[in-house]
Amino acid sequence: MGLLDGKKALITGARKGIGRGIALTLANEGADVGINDIVDDEVSQRAAELVSNRGVKGTFHVGDVSTVVGINSVIDSFIAEHGRIDILINNAIFPDQARPLFDTDEVFWDRMMDLSLKGYFFGSQRAAKEMIDQGTGGSIVCLASVHAYTAIKDWTAYGTAKAGLRRMVKGFAIDLKGHNINANCIAPGAISNVLPDSDADDVIDGAPHDASRFTAHLPAAKGGLPSDIANAVLYLTSELGQYVNGETILVDGGMVATKTMQD
Ligand SMILES: NC(=O)c1ccc[n+]([C@@H]2O[C@H](COP(=O)([O-])OP(=O)(O)OC[C@H]3O[C@@H](n4cnc5c(N)ncnc54)[C@H](O)[C@@H]3O)[C@@H](O)[C@H]2O)c1
Questions:
Q1: Which atom in ligand 1 lies closest to the alpha carbon of residue 226?
Q2: What's the pLDDT tens digit per position in 97-122?
Q3: What single DSSP character describes residue 184?
Q4: Which end of the chain is more exposed for a tag (fewer CB within 10 A), N or C?
């Protein structure tokens, strides 16, 4: 018996990194998993295959979740394959998220907000509508960040979007009252997002960050791994965490507690 037997979970931006770790972890607990990404290549297809190798259904859904049309098309594709949606994990992000204040132009701002706020909002809205129509409840998780709590130079647009997600899930909690849907954020610290060297079925995490970057200042004295985040997502999406709603859980090795973002 797994904690998520029979549940249908869609994870955006899950070809690699934290999303991939969440996909494999939820699959380990019995969920059928749809992997979305804007990139469709061998790595994307392999991620869906690794889900299937766990004895559950694994599918891949290419699409850009920074537009309303894009996220709806991905959810349509997921429901066509899986019949319904019980869990949505809003996780997608583009690389190069830092941008100095005076280099932050309208194009970069819109790109950040379209993916990290608009896409996460309308994906959640659509998923919640499906969950209400199904009458089975569900879970929504958004990937926020330590940048939602405290500022570090050149990360203002990203941090603003991530801080918005903390408020967004509080809104979902109250707006979805009575529908047995919980909506929360996980706020990761510094998490290695590289693919594992090994292609073995049971390997979830890639190489960790060099721990020497963290030993001087971070309570955990090491960087985090996708499975550290995925285990927190598992808690929120399973029966274990159903009474948690509108909350953001830091999974950061103590980074924000000690205001040590100088990594
Ligand atoms: N890695 C960290 O240290 C860290 C720290 C704090 C928060 N986070 C958050 O965790 C989440 C995952 O981060 P990660 O480091 O694993 O990312 P990652 O870069 O490893 O993976 C993100 C994936 O999203 C995909 N993507 C980009 N734009 C997309 C779009 N428009 N539509 C669909 N897919 C798209 C990318 O192709 C990529 O595969 C993000 O929300 C990020 O902000 C990560």
A1: 16
A2: 999 999 999 999 999 999 999 999 99
A3: E
A4: N
158 has catalytic annotation: yes
Angstrom CA distances, 217 to 2, 44, 153, 229, 261, stand at 37, 36, 18, 21, 9
Quick check: pTM over 0.85?
A: yes
Name the active-site residue from 120, 149, 158, 235: 158
Residues of the chain with pLDDT under 70: 261-263
- Domains assigned to the chain: 8-251 (3.40.50.720)
Q: Given this model, what pLDDT does residue 215 score?
A: 87
Q: Which atom of ligand 1 is nearest to the CA of 92?
A: 24
Q: Residue 160: count other Cβ atoms within 10 Å of its Cβ.
A: 17
Q: Nearest C-alpha to atom 31 of ligand 1 is from which residue? A: 64
Ligand 1 centroid – CA 178 distance (Å): 31
User: Which distant-in-sequence residues (6+ apart) come within 8 Å of 212 by Cβ?
Assistant: none
